[in-house]
Every structure is written in C-alpha cells, then in structure tokens.
Amino acid sequence: MSKPPSVPTVYIVDDDERIRRFIGRLLDEVGVAHAEFENAECFLEQFDPDAPGCLLLDVRMPGMGGRVLQDELTARGVDIPILFMTGFGEVSMAVEALQKGALDFLEKPLSPQRLLDRVQVALKADADRRRDRARSADNARALALLTPRERQVVDLILDGLSNKQIAFELSVSSQAIDARRLNAMKKLGVDSVAELVAFVLRSDGSGT
C-alpha cells in the first residue's frame, strides 16, 4: 500500500508472503502504515529516501539478501532504522548487521508484541534522527549569517580564550570583541557564552 511521504511507514521486505501478511495485519490493528515488498530489488525501485519510517528486513532472500540491501542503502547515504528478521541459524548474520548499524533483529517465528514494540522504537529513532538533522541544518544556516570577523571571535571563544586574550590576538579593542560576540549571539539566538559554545558544538557534530 502506498502512503504519502509524510506518514511514517514500516517497509516490510520478505520473500515469504505469509510473513508479510502476518506483519501487515498486526500493523493494521494498531494503525501503523506499511508497505510490503517481496524482494529487495522491488523495494529499492519504489523507496523514497526522504520518506519517514523504518525497515523490517529478512536476512536471507533470493536475489539481493538483506545484508546486501543494508550495504546498498549505506552506500547511498540512506539512514533508515533497520530491524532484521532472522530464521534459525542466521543469528550470526544478524549480529554482523547490528555491527554495521542495524537497530535490532527479530527471530522467527515472530513474537507479535515484541515486533510491535521494536517497530515503535524504530519509528521513534527515525523521527529523532530527522529532527536532529533538521536542527543541524537550521544551525548551519544560522552560522552562515555570521560575518568572518564574528565567526573568528566565536572560534577563539571555543578555543578557550577570554575577551582580553582575543582582543590581543586580533589586535583590536576589547569593546570591538564584545560587539562582535554580542552580534554573533543575537544572530544565533543564544543568551550566554555557554549557550553559544553548546550551539556551535552541536552544529559541528562535536556535541549532543
């Protein structure tokens, strides 16, 4: 079933039609949108990387297996939470998938409650990642508003220099440094040096 990209969707990729229908019925019961694919190739053809959601992925399938699909998504820069589904004897493959960024794996036969619980965790993880990316993009746009001189002062603050030391370093007055710092803080929407430092660290990926 197709859904607008704005609706968080669980993408079910499994060559076993019974498994797809079983999961689909469970998700219908709790009102979670889903789309079903019988193989990885069909999924790649129709998947919109900008669409929110998570991926329920069988490890072993004809053609492109789950692990290969995971690697392909990584190569394309697609960061979607993946829950692997594994049969008997495939746990080692699932562990390797976890080491490469998968969120979790579910052993078959699937436990309905565990599946639904992990799906909710995966959808929340996706929403959190998208929120963080959007915030980082907003922060980057705000930082781009700084003049070169304002950014220079901000960088020296991050290096731990005081106003007096920055003034000496740049051969300007302390008042000029104060003005540049205050202008930078206003543009970034922060009220203190501590908030300024935290803002830049988050934007540069150095903080949370």
Can you tell me about this structure?
- With 208 residues, this protein is an alpha/beta fold.
- The protein folds into two domains: 9-135, Rossmann fold (3-Layer(aba) Sandwich); 145-203, Orthogonal Bundle (Arc Repressor Mutant, subunit A).
- The protein contains nine helices and five strands; from the N terminus they run βαβαβαβαβααααα.
- The chain has helices at residues 17-29, 40-46, 66-75, 91-99, 112-144, 148-158, 163-170, 174-188, 193-203, and strands at residues 9-13, 33-37, 53-58, 82-86, 104-107.
- The protein has a five-stranded parallel beta sheet, sandwiched between helices.
- Helix 1 links the parallel strand 1 and strand 2 (33-37).
- Helix 5 packs across helix 9, helix 6 (148-158) crosses helix 8 and helix 7 crosses helix 8 (174-188).
- The longest helix is centred in the middle third of the chain and has 33 residues, at 112-144.
- The two termini are 37 Å apart.
- The mean pLDDT is 91.
CATH topology (level 3) name of the largest domain? Rossmann fold
Ends apart, CA distance between termini = 37 Å
Trace the largest sheet across and list its strands: 2-1-3-4-5
> Per CATH, which architecture of the largest domain?
3-Layer(aba) Sandwich
How many distinct helices?
9
CATH class of the largest domain: Alpha Beta
Q: Helices and strands: which structural class?
A: alpha/beta
